Amino acid sequence: MKILSVVGARPQFVKLAPVADECRRRGVEHVIVHTGQHYDPMLSDVFFTDLGIPDPDVHLGVGSGTHGVQTGAILGAMDAVLDEHRPDWVLVYGDTNSTLAGALSAVKLHLPIAHLEAGLRSFNRRMPEEHNRVLTDHAADLLLAPTQVAMDHLAAEGLAQRSVQVGDVMVDVLMLVRERLADTGAVLERLGLSNGGFSVATIHRAENTDDPARLSAIVTALQEVDHPVVLLAHPRLRAKASEHGLDLNGGSLTTRDPLAYPDLVAAVDAARGVITDSGGLQKEAFVLRTPCTTVRTETEWVETVELGWNVLAEPGPAVAAAASRPAPAPTDAAPYGTGTAAAAVLDALTR
Length: 351
Ligand code: UD1
Fold this sequence. Notes:
UDP-N-acetylglucosamine 2-epimerase activity; Rossmann fold; binds uridine-diphosphate-N-acetylglucosamine; UDP-N-acetylglucosamine 2-epimerase (Non-hydrolyzing); isomerase; UDP_GlcNAc_Epimerase_2_dom; WecB-like; 2 domains; alpha/beta; 16 helices; globular; 6-stranded parallel sheet
């Protein structure tokens, strides 16, 4: 069996790591195509190095652009790649423009497509990620869903026959990295953080960064939290803050560059809270049992909210209030699986 993975953005490298590892373990031929959607070393190369992912076999180098330009550039480059490799499966991950372009190029060439992290829905049709998910799910032949909720969404759209629940590969990699963390104290010292008293924040989604009034309300709210907040600034956030003339530091808020994955895991594990609009970080916080405040009107990861570990908050005093709340009751629920999702993915692809 020959699998060709299409990845391009930070969260996809995290999901790729356990899949690449499982392919290696089973002796399955695995071609990695990096679209180049993310090109900053801290959003890309560092994940390959730290997570032991083999170098990409193909790098398309498309870079940034509007949705149409970026998606189109990947699409235009993929025909030749797929023609050359003729894989048994084209595997696409998550919900970025790289996901949709990978799926679209494969479907046109009649190559079987598997979508990892299928069935997620925010039901917010203004999100680019929602367009990418819905279109990719309907183009794919095999839908690898992380949760029962995702399976239910796929069934509601008539896709039950093509769906398999495999668990969440992000849990696989998170557990492995947490086990290997040698000295969390040293990581925190390097980051200038004291154990337990801070929150980790990330904000990068278009709906939060692109409207100056909304971004300003978010930054003010982060500055008013009653304990130190460390904002790990995605390049999009820095670009938009500078465009809107916003200072990201002040009050309780300090800003620094994004972290390598093991450092992020150490920081979230030690933190008293997470404040984010990232999908992956909501789950990582839950798995590490760090309370999360999500600056969005809805979440795809509803289990984290239902179990009391995640609160949705609109920019303003609600963010500071949610971020200061006490930790919820402990739970041993594992809605995202127990770290065996990559094996289930390979089983499903082999079947
Ligand atoms: C993309 C995904 C989003 C995912 C996120 C993870 C889409 C539609 N969005 O958003 O779902 O959660 O990745 O980070 O695919 N930039 C850099 N260096 C880089 C990459 C981007 O400076 O390496 C800047 C550029 O100004 C660029 C902007 O960030 O225009 C946005 O990047 P883009 O890849 O379009 O989307 P993300 O916001 O990263």
